[in-house]
Design goal:
By secondary structure, the chain is of the alpha+beta class. It has 28 helices and 20 strands.
């Protein structure tokens, strides 16, 4: 599957030129800088922001493999590509080790390794190497099981090291794998009252987290400073659908056509073979108990009724999904179904109650403890992948999912993609496959094993097979990288893929870039991206006070090219068929020293007049908002008497972006004769404000001090497709 990547190791990137380029640059940075030092955190993106490595995952656990490859080959691209391809084998081998420890069956462990190392979900996550680097997780569980079995501390050491490295490789695993381990401790340790072992595991976990603690604290401080949080709606958007087990990655050779309930990162197709084995294992554990525990006749009848109800409602759900809402009237009998959600829930809960009723189900944990645990955990991890609000066919069913409990954990509300819990579910699923097959093959004998294992291997591989992982070209080079080394560079246009390429060139070339692409963005950067389309000069006004800036402009970006060529004293330092390099000299920001705040007597506006008081209440969480649909966006400030005014402070509060894109400020002593004070695009002042204080966004509009009683702010009509919002408004003497 990796042959195309291996054939172009150093001049292409695996899968796509998006996130793989981002993680390549991070791995290169980690391989060339000493972890934990201040310099290590200063990833050269989003200049002049600090601690920018904390905006994404640091990937230290992956660097354990990738960095030595880069040191040997001298190429971060080769290191990334080899690590990605190797992740399949490393993950399979780690699962083989766990499965063999639990089952002592080489054939069963082999199939489990294939099911984990080549799971369909891995194809869905090819752009995210941190989701492919999950080879430490099985080793952590291996250490726990072996410690409980032998009592030897070396197995505790394996658990602690593997858990720490998995958390260092994937921030999601730090929380998600820990949830599984917490369930493991409850099931195998607390339930058995093995208090000494509980204490030893707890101490090991604390020791293992110590190397990560300084990094976590640095992340917490940086995110607090920049106000970086994940909104609930964003988390819901990256939660899986209940039906997403029928959503396969489209790149799959055999099953890519199955696309039911697909959402962003929500392709949870487990594979036909893997699911069949899981279902057989579930039946084997949840079947009727031994003769001594035979259920009574009423229980058997109740179970049959519940299974019948589950089947009927499952058919109703399928009918609504297939043909839409329906109504059936048979005389006085009126039957209807309008949504998939309700019959699906009734079907699931009826089946669960039916399974729970027999004594055999209650004895399942005692009769097959390890297999029962991983069956249960597979289902639990799937439920957690559904996020805080359950959905069927992309429609909310009105119930919260168990992920809401995960969000209460430290750091749990900072993870954007609950659907990634499915990787932990795949870990549990592969373990179920190992345990069930080991028992099956043991009973059936060697002849059956020789026949079935090769067939199962082919079927499991077919579930996650792709013809080849594509190899994509690397970002193009700038014409004169030597002229940019050690300098500050802005790439235009800005946004997503251009930013990824700019970041890659900066990290490899040794310069700082204004651009950036990461899991979190500094609050000002979305304004920069939008300003790049409308007001490049405003961007320069915001950044030139920090010193000279080199601007790399795509040759086909004609408007940005023209703007740069008009800049006073601009110097062209390089040009090729793709880019032109410009150098613009820095210029100091006009000093704004002293001045006193002038009390505002009143505000008036034809737009949302009752809400004007919220612009004067000194509360940045309340706003005066003027919507884009109105004919006139205008606001007049009355100072009560004529005073010397020289600046207006437009406070956006913690939410940047709702400022007037173009603003005209006029002053008057009598309210009838008006004099221009300030006019122009507000992009530059808005960017400067968000850089000065990421959570305050105090936008200053400074003009020559003059006597005035009235100050009128006008958002020109041609710009009124934007919302104008003010959290707080002030006038200053200068």
């Amino acid at each position: 599957m990796g042959r195309e990547v291996l054939a172009h190791l150093g001049d292409s990137i695996a899968n796509d030129a998006g996130d793989p380029i981002l993680t390549t640059t991070i791995l290169h940075w980690v391989a060339t800088h000493v972890p934990y030092t201040d310099a290590w955190y200063q990833f050269p993106i989003f200049y002049p922001s600090r601690d920018t490595l904390t905006f994404s995952e640091h990937l230290l656990g992956i660097a354990v493999v990738a960095a030595p490859i880069e040191w040997i080959t001298g190429s971060p691209v080769v290191a990334y590509n080899l690590t990605l391809v190797a992740s399949f084998a490393l993950s399979a081998a780690a699962m083989f080790a766990l499965a063999w420890r639990l089952s002592r069956s080489i054939p069963a462990s082999f199939i489990a390794g294939l099911a984990y190392g080549f799971a369909p979900y891995r194809i869905s996550q090819l752009p995210h190497i941190q989701m492919e680097a999950i080879w430490y997780a099985p080793l952590a569980l291996l250490g726990l099981h072996a410690y409980l079995e032998t009592g030897r501390r070396r197995w505790l050491a394996l658990y602690g090291i593997a858990w720490m490295l998995q958390g260092a490789a994937n921030g999601y695993a730090l929380i998600f794998l820990s949830v599984l381990i917490g369930a493991w401790v409850v099931w195998f340790v607390i339930a058995s009252r093995r208090w000494r072992e509980l204490a030893m595991i707890a101490v090991t976990t604390v020791v293992a987290v110590l190397p990560l603690a300084p990094i976590l604290l640095r992340y917490i401080r940086a995110h607090e400073y920049y106000g970086m949080i994940r909104g609930v709606e964003e988390i819901k958007a990256f939660s899986a659908d209940i039906s997403a087990v029928l959503c396969a990655p489209p790149a799959l050779t055999f099953w890519g056509w199955i696309r039911v309930g697909c959402r962003p990162e929500g392709e949870l197709f487990p594979g036909v073979a893997a699911f069949a084995i899981f279902a057989a294992a579930a039946v084997s554990v949840l079947k009727w108990g031994p003769a001594s525990a035979s259920p009574s006749r009423p229980i058997r009848i109740a179970v049959r009724i519940l299974y019948g109800v589950a089947l009927v409602y499952a058919l109703i759900a399928v009918s609504v999904w297939w043909s839409g809402p329906w109504i059936l009237e048979l005389g006085p009998l009126h039957i209807s179904s309008s949504t998939v959600a309700k019959p699906v829930l009734v079907s699931i809960f009826s089946a669960l109650i039916a399974l729970a009723l027999p004594p055999g189900a209650r004895l399942a944990a005692r009769r097959a403890s390890i297999l029962s645990f991983y069956l249960f955990s597979t289902v639990l991890m799937w439920l957690l992948a559904l996020g805080p609000r359950l959905r069927v066919m992309d429609r909310s069913i009105g119930y919260d999912g168990p992920y809401t409990w995960v969000m209460l954990l430290p750091g749990g509300d900072g993870l954007r993609v609950p659907a990634r819990f499915w990787m932990v579910a795949v870990l549990c699923l592969a373990t179920v496959i190992a345990l069930f097959l080991a028992e099956l093959l043991k009973r059936r004998g060697q002849g059956f094993t020789r026949l079935v294992v090769p067939i199962l291997a082919v079927l499991v591989l077919a579930d996650g097979w792709v013809s080849a992982i594509p190899a994509q070209p690397l970002p193009p080079d700038v014409p004169n990288p030597a002229a940019l080394a050690g300098r500050t560079v802005l790439d235009l246009p800005a946004g997503d893929y251009p930013d990824i390429a700019a970041q890659y060139r900066a990290v490899r070339g040794g310069w700082r870039t204004v651009n950036g692409y990461s899991g979190f963005l500094p609050p000002y950067y979305p304004i920069v991206v939008n300003a790049a389309k409308e007001d490049v000069a405003g961007i320069l006004d915001a950044f030139l006070p920090y010193g000279d800036i080199d601007v790399v402009v795509a040759r086909d970006a004609s408007e940005q090219q023209a703007t740069l060529r008009r800049q006073p004293g601009v110097l062209i330092t390089g040009e090729n068929t793709v880019f032109t390099q410009f150098r613009v000299r820095g210029r100091p920001e006009p000093a704004r020293d002293g001045g006193v705040r002038i009390p505002i007597a009143s505000l008036s506006s034809p737009c949302e007049a009752p809400a004007l008081r919220q612009a004067l209440d000194r509360n940045v969480d309340t706003y005066w908002v003027c919507g884009p649909e109105l004919d006139e966006q205008q606001l007049t400030i009355d100072l009560g008497r004529v005073q010397t005014a020289g600046a207006v402070l437009h406070d956006e509060g913690p939410h940047a972006g709702n400022f007037p894109r173009r603003l005209v400020i006029e002053t008057s002593e009598d309210g009838s004769t008006w004099s221009p004070a300030w006019a122009g695009n507000a992009w530059g002042p808005a960017i400067s404000a968000a850089m000065r204080n990421p959570k305050a966004n105090h936008i200053w509009f400074v003009f020559d001090p003059r006597p005035a009683r009235f100050i009128r702010l006008t958002h020109p009509r041609e710009e009124q497709h934007y919302i104008w919002a003010i959290a707080d408004l002030e006038v200053w003497s200068k």
